[in-house]
Every structure is written in C-alpha cells, then in structure tokens.
Amino acid sequence: MLDKNFVRENLDLVKERLAARGGAYPLDELVAADADWKGFLARSEELRRRRNEASEAIGKAKRAGGDTAAEQARVKEISAEIKTLEEAARAAEERLNACLHSIPNLPHESVPIGKDENANVEVRRWGQAPEFDFEPQDHVDLGTALGILDMDRAAKIAGARFSLLVGAGALLERALIGFMLDLHTREHGYREVLPPLMANSASLFGTGNLPKFAQDLFHVEETDYYLIPTAEVPVTNLYRDETLDAADLPRKFVSYTACFRSEAGSYGKDVRGLIRQHQFNKVELVKFADPARSYDELEALTRDAAEVLERLGLHHRVVALSTGDMGFSSAKTYDIEVWLPSQNRFREISSCSNFEAFQARRANIRFRGEEGRKQYVHTLNGSGLAIGRTWLAIVENYQQEDGTVVIPEALRPYMRGMDVIRRES
After folding, report:
1. CA separation for the pair 19, 29 (Å, rounded)
2. CB 295 within 8 A of CB 332
C-alpha cells in the first residue's frame, strides 16, 4: 500500500499518477478520514493534558484537606470523553486504512500512459514465427490426437477449465519444470524454495491479493487458508515482519508450485485448453532488492525469464504495460508474450513486475542500511515461466504436418532422450 504520509504531503502528485491508471479511487474519503483521525487524536491528547493537570490539583487539594468531589467528577467526565474520542479515532483510522488498502500502486514515471493494452509498448522481440506449409492446429486438437491431453476426463474428474496430461504430455510438463528450475538455480543465481500451497489471509494481504481480489481466490471453508494463486504469495511472505541486511540484497528465489485461480470473467479462446485454467503449474521468480537498484533488478529478472523461451527456440516479445493495463500492486510491469500459431498472435506467458515498497509496506519487510536506518525493501517477481502456456507453445510451434511434435533440443535430456512426440495408444 502507499505511505499515508506520502499521500498526505503529495496529494496532487498522487492524484496525477492515479489518473494515469484510470478508474476512481477514494482519495477524498482518505483525506477526510485522515483529517478526522488527526483531529480526534489531537483533541484526546489535549484532554489527557487537562486530566493530568486536574489530577495533580486534586492530589494537592486532598493533601490540604480540601473537598475534591466536583473535580473528581470532572475528571471522570474527561476520561469518558477521552474514551469516546479514542473509539472515534480508531474508527477513522479504520476508514483511512480501508481507503489505503483499495488504492493501487503509483506507476513509475517510465511506464507508458494509456487506458488499456492498446497503449502497451513493445520493447524487443526475439526469433521468427514458424512458417507452415499446412494449416497449423491448436494445442487441444494436437494434444488430443496424440493422446497426451485429455480435457474430457479432466472435466469428468473436476469440471471445466482443468486438464489431464498423459504419457509424453505429463513428461513434457515435468521436463519443463526441471529445465526451468535448473536454468534459474544453476545459471541465474536463484535459490530454490518449495513453499506451502495454501497461505493465510495475512500473506495474501501482504502481496495485495486481499481484500480487493478475494473473488479471484479459492478459500478453504471455515479456515483462514486460501489456495495460492501464485508462488509470489508464499515466497514474498518469507520475510514478512522481518528486517534484512543491506549486504544480503538482492535475495533471489525461484519456486515451482501449482497455482489456483477462479478466473472469473474469462471467456472465448481464453477458456479453451491450457490458456486459462483453475489449476496450473508455474515456476516463479521473486526478488527482494535495495530500492536504489530495483529497476536494474527488474531488467535482469525479465531477461532471466525470457531466456527460457530463447533456449526453447520460441518466438516471443517483451512489452511494457501501460498505466491502464498494469496490475494493482505493480509500479512497472513487462509482459513476455510467446507466439501461438493457432491464434496467429502473441500471448502473455510471463509478467515481470517491480512493486517497489508497495508489498513490503503491507507485509512489513524492511532492511537495515549501512547507517543502521531501516527502510522498506523493494519486491519484484515474474513467471519464469507459466508451465502450461510453455507446454502449449511448444506443441503448437513444433508441430509437424503428420501431427507429431518435435521436442526442442534443450528439453531432450529431460525427456529421456525423446526427440519427437508421436501418437500414444
């Protein structure tokens, strides 16, 4: 969340940056709640001063043998008034925090300004789209014909927007997980962590998922547990309520987990096959960085994620998201988009974001600088990559006219030497 002192002292700037995002935000309510809160605190402090003075006078009068009944009654009245003001201050602070919790992060000055994805800016692209002398199929038809993807049985087991991978399809999923983890740990310097697949509400508040996006989550009934929507949630909360040392920054983690999302509002091609599912696997990259270097770390994280696609020989591009297309917690986001022949377009396969201190302030993650002063770290994360979308990109881009799929060379050591996926019985 934003720093209320920063909002208070830079209200015009905050309004300007939020206007670039679009939408309506409760800044006026925040200002009013802040004024009420400060007013109640000031009034209660004044009454405490008066009560202390009256108590001293009562003590002196008692020692002198005087009658203090009236003064004592007045002190009781003051104490009751203080209690009322304290309750009012708490209520005002709750209103203030509710406003803060519903206001998104401010876009970095380098973010393209625009109201939606049409204002996103392509930064670079890699490789060439494959050319086919036949009509390319989508991954659902290919996977079904090869016997490696079974959407019907997945629907029977669980329902819509679940998948069942079989044989070489399951092996390909596992191969991608191993390949990505090895690349990021052995060559990019990330430390692997395998976290719980459920998180409590405090963890989801820390990353900005709660309270605003509760409808996107799967909640475990009668508990404080939620199925994680991404490994970003548990890994970012590794250091909740802790203070790191500046010398240890950046701290870099990679995590493979299953992810669970309600995906409310998805429609059309997004709900066919593996594009947008309730459960999917992902390898996530998370960084805790010194604010002075966090944007350099964002560039590095984005390169690390994109290198997965380069090693797999998949045509892709990197785009900077506009102010109107960014996520709630992000200050700047790059999307990595992979080419899908069946759709003849790029589709997002990773979002790499710098949240600056927005998450760290919610989760109370600080670091101690050289002079011993504590300040909030900057948190970053990105998919490195979404496994299902990488799976389907390989199947579609490496398909052959006979319906087989060639395995990229980088994956063959993870595929028991298999170089082509053929029809399984």
Report:
1. 16
2. yes
Q: Which residues are catalytic?
A: 261, 276, 348, 351, 389
Pairing of strands 366-368, 243-245: parallel
Kindly report, residue by residue over 258-275, the tens digit of the pLDDT. 999 998 665 555 668 899
Calculate helix-pair angle for 27-63, 69-102, nearest 10 degrees: 160
The overall pTM is greater than 0.85: yes
User: Which residues are CB-contacts of 148 (< 8 A; sequence separation ≥ 6)?
Assistant: 165, 166, 167, 168, 169, 170, 172, 421, 424
CA 299 to each of CA 123, 304, 332, 381: distance values in angstroms, whole numbers, following the listed order: 11, 9, 11, 11
Per DSSP, the residues of 108-121 read PTTSPP-SSGGG-E
**At what angle are helices 139-146 and 168-182 packed, to 10 degrees?**
120
CA distance 206 to 236: 8
What does the CA dihedral 5, 11, 16, 19 come to, rounded to 10 degrees? 80
List residues bridging with 317 in a β-sheet. Answer: 125, 337
Q: How many CB atoms lie within 10 A of CB 410?
A: 15
Rounded distance between C-alpha atoms, residue 181 and residue 174, angstroms: 11
Instruction: Examine residue 2 and say whether the peptide bond preceding it is cis (omega within 30 degrees of 0).
Output: no
Q: Write down the pLDDT at residue 425.
A: 65
Residue appearing with tokens 């000031």: 42
